[in-house]
Design a protein that fits this description.
alpha+beta
Length: 97
């Protein structure tokens, strides 16, 4: 799935009960993040729960996926496995608009 980083999303706090967006992703998936999910990047260091949006889609929702801090700064479009995208809770989307 082709995605792009959401610019400026770091200003939004994580959901209550979680220490980070990465921890939220892990709880929703049921697995521990072990590497960056950007295609062709296999970094295992400095992982974050990154906010991304699908490109070329009517779906304007935000999703969380583990990315390394470098990939979280990307301004281009990049591939991630769609099955690992976790939607940002709807109450956060309401707060954004």
């Amino acid at each position: 799935m082709l995605v792009k980083n959401v610019n400026g999303s770091s200003r939004f706090t994580r959901p209550n009960g979680y220490n980070s967006w990465l921890e939220y992703w892990e709880s929703q998936i049921g697995l521990k993040a072990h590497e960056c999910f950007a295609k062709d990047c296999y970094s295992r260091e400095y992982l974050v729960g990154a906010h991304v949006q699908k490109v070329s889609s009517d779906d304007k929702a935000w999703y969380i996926i583990p990315l390394c801090s470098s990939c979280n700064q990307r301004i281009d479009y990049f591939e991630v496995p769609e099955s690992w995208l976790v939607p940002v809770p709807s109450n956060f989307i309401t707060l954004l608009y």
